[in-house]
């Protein structure tokens, strides 16, 4: 038995050991899965801790070492666990565990897995105990302060610095007059500690100033000491002082107190007294030596003005050596100016800045003749304290600065306009200057630049006053701003009426030369009600206003107005990149190119560039930039800041519009695509169709429409097209804003839907149609439309310029019960109108112009509400009989430029004549029979607005009525090969009705009475080879454009028989802006005499070799002419009144190279003014030299 017991013990131990090892082998699969789960949990906890650490870093905190060590351990364990899991998964995959071939390795692996599970759980438990992962970073011992170049302070700096090493010195005082450099010296001391070794635990800067209190000083020190809120908030001043004291007594500190005006009790703040034991220091700056004594300073230093040579060196450096050496006299005068600055650094600096670049010796001499005035002027650029005022003026009261500097950020693209405005400030004829433009374009920025430049440049103004007027501003508010600037005391202001205050302001300002800057003016401001004297030559004062409304410029009687325009693409990109920042631009190689695309979408509007630029700052992923480009194109309001920072600012202009109709007309412009140039007439016709002018005839509606367009241009919400005056366009950002407003400020995004170049698939998947009120589809890619869209709210539908679209689906109009406007123009492949158009009984406007529709459906008879039917530029069109006469509400009908009336279509004229509401017609004729039918109807003649005659081959004589064609605006005659003469029946109303006369009246009476062709603007006469003259144009007093080509028999435009006196011809062509004559080999005269041409901009004479004299003299087109075009040879042969006239107009000549010039058949060599070798005219010679 004794031998059995040890054996059993050994067996038991052996079994236990074997069982444990077996468990490592048998439980390997479960343990591996457990390790994987525990590691995933640890990783999640690690990510949470990392997030908290990162947030702490963003808040200027530093991670705790314990946390950093834990994160490092987690990282190490993660790699080790990954290796174990990979090894374990491989072992399981081999399925060798049940065999005895690798039991030892399986046991070791299982043991490592068990040990690693315990380790991972331990790390996970530790990670859950971190209540705080980061602590506040200790503040820097010394905070660097902004410091410019210092002059003359080195010696004193060394003396003060030496005091910092003397244990017996606790407080150092620096005193001196204002502007002498005390603060600069103390900043130099502060920043010097960053570069030299020292024993201070902290350096604290506190700007005390006159109004500073113990409380303010405590807050500054508390921030430096990083005292947490929980032991600071709700504490008394005394308790806060104790807390500061308990911290600072354990430290060696340097306290810098700047601009001390009265004794400051350090113990009330909580600052321990500096002494030899704590070796701390306090330095104060003050203007009074008495304060140094009261604060018990052990060392006191007076900051003296600069030495003469130091001041001169500083002054010359600021003025610039180019300026100093530009004239010998300036070098002497520079010395005198420096002397008058009395060595005060601030005065020397500001004097140097004012005179920088000034090379006018006269101005330098003026400054030195009255140096006191000059010093007083620049004293406003520094601190106009009582010491400086007393030093120069003998007064104790602080004076208001001449110019108050305005906060001004980065400016770009304003320099050219700034120079132009500044030039007006020296022009005695200019009293009031206006800057106008779209909201956000930079008007206020430009005026701030003008204001601030007064601080740097020389001027003669006594005061510059800035008043932000704004929409809600009143006379009282403006008076308060001016009162503060003029420092009118309460005793002369309080309890006074508005008129009395105006009188007080006036009596002060009338003695001054002032600049009044009125920013953001929305209505005419009566300066006299404010009390501002009118600027005039005597006082040489100026007023500058900024406004979004151009007419305000006229209402305030400005002498110069400047439009602040959008930035060029290059300058816009520069502004945008500045707001995005270099870090973002360098974060990915694709971003610079993407940034150009984003900037381009802002179309040069500075406010948009700034808003979008700020939104894109820190967007380091190209994907984010791609998304921004798409959002700017489709949903710009989703860009950060666009709604609050941009659209709401621009909306102020919309809100200021006079009435709801004008606002609706503005919003309607966004129904056209971006960058689309909208013809004024086309836009007004749509407004008429929309019912904006219900109850008005077409004449009145057009007048109202043109007035609204002018109002919108005046408000800078629309702008004139670059190429054509009769077109307008809307800036892209304003387009986005208008759509945002139409969508109820973003609340109903599908209310208006404008799509360009929509693809086939997209068009079929349209889901936005259901709630839309207006849909506008444009573009070459649209080939197919939805089958039966449900559009119960739809009022307007544009399908325009869709050149691939050939037909509409059947039933397309089935669910559009409210539609009023249908525009299918320029959809060239469209050959028939869709079925169901007769269901659109609410239609008031249809435009089929430039389509290939072959026939109008008879069902259109049901459209009895139709007011406008446009069929311009179409091929021959079948119109069923009695269809037009069934349109009982029709007011406007156009069939112009293409589908002309022939002798077979006279019945259509009768139908039009039968419609009572018809007001306006635009018609083309190619038949004398049809034309005579028109001319026999007084009603139709009264309605004609555009008239075109082409290919009327039997037309020999054209007689027009001067009264009944009174509504005619555009008249075109083309290819009428037999036409010889045009006559005007001048009807006079008498006792027997209208009596006809062919007498030519006095042209002066034509203009004054305004009764003949008073609306005719454009005349085009082409290919009428037998036509002799156009003398009838004397009746067209308002003619703006005359284009005559290929009239080979024409010798004179206005017959010489008409020229009867020197007083008559002055009234001809007074509104003409463009005159084009081409292909007329016999033309010898435009008019026998000189005309004023006060509006003429362009004269173009091509292939008219016999025209040797233009009807111009030195007074002609004096302010309007821009260009004269013609062949250089023709120009050289022109005859002039004298050489001075030739020289004047030579500056406007632009040579046109002719591919096939017409030669003068009667040209005789040697005739006067012929260009022969050595006999070229003076002007032509100059032009030839320029081209060579």
Automatic annotation (TrEMBL):
Annotated GO MF terms: ADP binding; ATP binding
SMART domains per UniProt: AAA
InterPro entries: AAA+_ATPase, Apaf_helical, At4g27190-like_LRR, LRR_dom_sf, LRR_R13L4/SHOC2-like, NB-ARC, P-loop_NTPase, Plant_NBS-LRR
Pfam families: LRR_14, LRR_RPS2, NB-ARC, WHD_DRP
AAA+ ATPase domain boundaries: 168-307, 429-568
Gene Ontology annotations of biological process type: defense response
Keywords assigned by UniProt, alphabetized: ATP-binding, Coiled coil, Leucine-rich repeat, Nucleotide-binding, Plant defense, Repeat
Residue ranges the record marks as coiled coil: 25-52
Family stated for the protein in its record: Belongs to the disease resistance NB-LRR family.
PANTHER family named among the record's database cross-references: NB-ARC DOMAIN-CONTAINING PROTEIN (PTHR33463:SF220), NB-ARC DOMAIN-CONTAINING PROTEIN-RELATED (PTHR33463)
Name of the protein: Disease resistance protein RPS5
Organism listed in the record: Vitis vinifera
């Amino acid at each position: 038995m004794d031998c059995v017991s040890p054996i059993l013990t050994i067996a038991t131990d052996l079994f236990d050991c074997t069982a444990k090892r077996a468990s490592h082998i048998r439980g390997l699969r479960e343990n591996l899965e457990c390790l994987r789960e525990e590691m995933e949990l640890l990783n999640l906890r690690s990510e949470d801790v990392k997030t908290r650490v990162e947030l702490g870093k963003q808040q200027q905190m530093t991670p705790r070492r314990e946390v950093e060590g834990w994160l490092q351990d987690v990282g190490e364990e993660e790699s080790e666990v990954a290796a174990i899991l990979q090894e374990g998964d491989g072992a399981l995959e081999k399925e060798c565990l049940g065999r005895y071939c690798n039991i030892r390795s399986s046991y070791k692996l299982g043991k490592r897995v068990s040990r690693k599970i315990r380790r991972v759980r331990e790390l996970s438990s530790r990670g859950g105990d971190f209540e705080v992962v980061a602590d506040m970073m200790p503040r820097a011992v010394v905070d660097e302060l902004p410091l410019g170049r210092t002059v003359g302070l080195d010696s004193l700096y060394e003396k003060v610095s030496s005091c910092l090493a003397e244990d017996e010195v606790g407080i150092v005082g620096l005193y001196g007059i204002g502007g002498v450099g005390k603060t600069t010296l103390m900043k130099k001391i502060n920043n010097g500690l960053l570069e030299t070794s020292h024993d201070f635990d902290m350096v604290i800067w506190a700007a005390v100033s006159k109004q500073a209190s113990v409380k303010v000083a405590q807050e500054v020190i508390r921030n430096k000491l990083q005292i947490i809120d929980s032991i600071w908030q709700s504490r008394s001043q005394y308790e806060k002082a104790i807390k500061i004291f308990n911290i600072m007594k354990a430290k060696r500190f340097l306290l810098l107190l700047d601009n001390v005006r009265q004794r400051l009790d350090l113990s009330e703040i909580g600052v321990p007294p500096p002494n030899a034991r704590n070796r701390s220091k306090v330095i104060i700056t003050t203007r009074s030596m008495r304060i140094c004594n009261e604060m018990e300073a052990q060392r006191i230093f007076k900051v003296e003005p600069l030495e003469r040579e130091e001041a001169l060196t500083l002054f010359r450096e600021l003025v610039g050596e180019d300026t100093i050496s530009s004239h010998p006299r300036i070098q002497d005068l520079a010395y005198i100016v420096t002397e008058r600055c009395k060595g005060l650094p601030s005065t020397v600096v500001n004097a140097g800045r004012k005179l920088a670049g000034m090379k006018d010796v006269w101005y330098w001499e003026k400054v030195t003749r009255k140096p006191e005035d000059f010093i007083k002027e620049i004293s406003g650029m520094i601190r106009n304290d009582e010491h400086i005022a007393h030093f120069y003026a003998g007064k104790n009261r602080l004076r208001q600065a001449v110019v108050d500097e305005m906060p001004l950020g980065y400016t770009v693209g304003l320099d050219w306009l700034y120079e132009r405005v500044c030039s007006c400030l020296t022009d005695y004829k200019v009293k009031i200057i206006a800057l106008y433009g779209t909201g956000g374009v930079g008007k206020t920025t430009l005026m701030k630049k003008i204001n601030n430049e007064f601080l740097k440049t020389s001027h003669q103004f006594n005061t510059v006053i800035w008043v932000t007027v704004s929409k809600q501003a009143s006379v009282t508010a403006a008076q308060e701003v001016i009162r503060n600037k003029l420092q009118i005391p309460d005793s002369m202001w309080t309890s006074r009426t508005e008129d009395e205050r105006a009188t007080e302001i006036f009596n002060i300002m009338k003695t001054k030369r002032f600049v009044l800057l009125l920013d953001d003016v929305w209505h005419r401001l009566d300066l006299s009600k404010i009390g501002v004297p009118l600027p005039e030559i005597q006082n040489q004062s100026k007023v500058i206003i900024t406004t979004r409304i151009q007419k305000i410029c006229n209402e305030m009687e400005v002498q110069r107005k400047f439009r602040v325009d959008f930035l060029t693409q290059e300058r816009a990109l520069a502004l945008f990149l500045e707001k995005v920042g270099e870090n973002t631009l360098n974060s990915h190689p694709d971003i610079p190119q993407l940034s150009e695309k984003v900037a381009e979408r802002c179309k040069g509007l500075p406010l948009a560039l700034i808003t979008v630029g700020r939104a894109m700052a820190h967007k380091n992923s190209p994907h984010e930039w791609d998304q921004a480009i798409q959002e700017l194109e489709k949903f710009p309001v989703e860009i950060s800041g666009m709604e609050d920072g941009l659209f709401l600012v621009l909306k102020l202009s919309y809100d200021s519009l006079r009435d709801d109709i004008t606002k609706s007309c503005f919003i309607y412009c966004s129904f056209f695509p971006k960058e689309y140039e909208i013809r004024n007439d086309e836009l007004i016709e749509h407004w008429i169709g929309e019912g904006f002018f219900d109850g008005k005839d077409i004449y009145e509606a057009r007048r109202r429409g043109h007035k609204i367009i002018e109002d919108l241009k005046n408000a800078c919400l629309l702008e004139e097209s670059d190429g054509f005056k009769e077109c307008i366009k809307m800036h892209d950002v304003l387009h986005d804003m208008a759509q945002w407003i139409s969508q109820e400020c973003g609340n109903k995004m599908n209310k208006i839907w404008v799509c360009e170049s929509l693809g086939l698939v997209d068009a079929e998947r349209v889901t936005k149609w259901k709630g839309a009120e207006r849909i506008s589809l444009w573009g070459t890619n649209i080939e197919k439309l939805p089958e039966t869209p449900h559009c119960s709210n739809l009022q307007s539908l544009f399908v325009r310029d869709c050149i691939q679209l050939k037909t509409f689906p059947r039933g397309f109009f089935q669910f559009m019960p409210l539609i009023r406007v249908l525009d299918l123009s320029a959809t060239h492949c469209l050959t028939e109108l869709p079925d169901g158009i007769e269901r659109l009984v609410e239609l008031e406007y249809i435009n089929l112009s430039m389509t290939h529709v072959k026939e109008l459906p008879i069902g259109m008879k049901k459209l009895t509400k139709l007011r406008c039917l446009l069929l311009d530029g179409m091929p021959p069109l079948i119109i069923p009989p009695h269809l037009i006469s069934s349109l009982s509400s029709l007011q406007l009908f156009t069939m112009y430029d293409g589908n002309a009336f022939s002798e077979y279509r006279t019945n259509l004229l009768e139908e039009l004549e039968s419609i009572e509401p018809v007001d306006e017609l635009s018609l083309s004729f190619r038949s004398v029979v049809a034309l005579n039918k028109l001319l026999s109807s007084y009603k139709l003649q009264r309605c004609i607005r555009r008239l075109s005659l082409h290919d009327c081959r039997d037309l020999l004589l054209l007689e027009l009525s001067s009264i009944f064609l009174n509504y005619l605006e555009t008249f075109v005659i083309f290819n009428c090969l037999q036409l010889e003469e045009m006559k005007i029946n001048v009807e006079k109303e008498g006792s027997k009705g209208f009596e006809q006369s062919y007498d030519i009246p006095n042209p002066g009476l034509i203009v004054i009475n305004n009764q003949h062709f008073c609306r005719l603007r454009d005349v085009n006469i082409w290919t009428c080879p037998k036509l002799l003259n156009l003398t009838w144009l004397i009746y067209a007093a308002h003619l703006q454009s005359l284009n005559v080509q290929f009239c080979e028999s024409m010798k004179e435009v206005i017959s010489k028989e008409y020229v009867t006196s020197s007083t008559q011809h002055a009234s001809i062509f007074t509104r003409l802006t463009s005159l084009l004559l081409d292909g007329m080999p016999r033309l010898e005269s435009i008019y026998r005499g000189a005309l004023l041409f006060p509006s003429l901009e362009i004269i173009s004479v091509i292939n008219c070799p016999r025209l040797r004299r233009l009807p111009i003299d030195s007074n002609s087109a004096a302010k309007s002419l821009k260009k004269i075009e013609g062949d250089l040879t023709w120009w050289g042969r022109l005859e002039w009144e004298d050489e001075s006239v030739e020289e004047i107009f030579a500056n406007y000549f632009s040579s046109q190279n002719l591919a096939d010039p017409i030669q003068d058949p009667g040209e005789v060599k040697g005739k006067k003014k012929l260009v022969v070798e050595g006999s070229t005219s003076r002007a032509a010679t100059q032009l030839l030299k320029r081209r060579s």
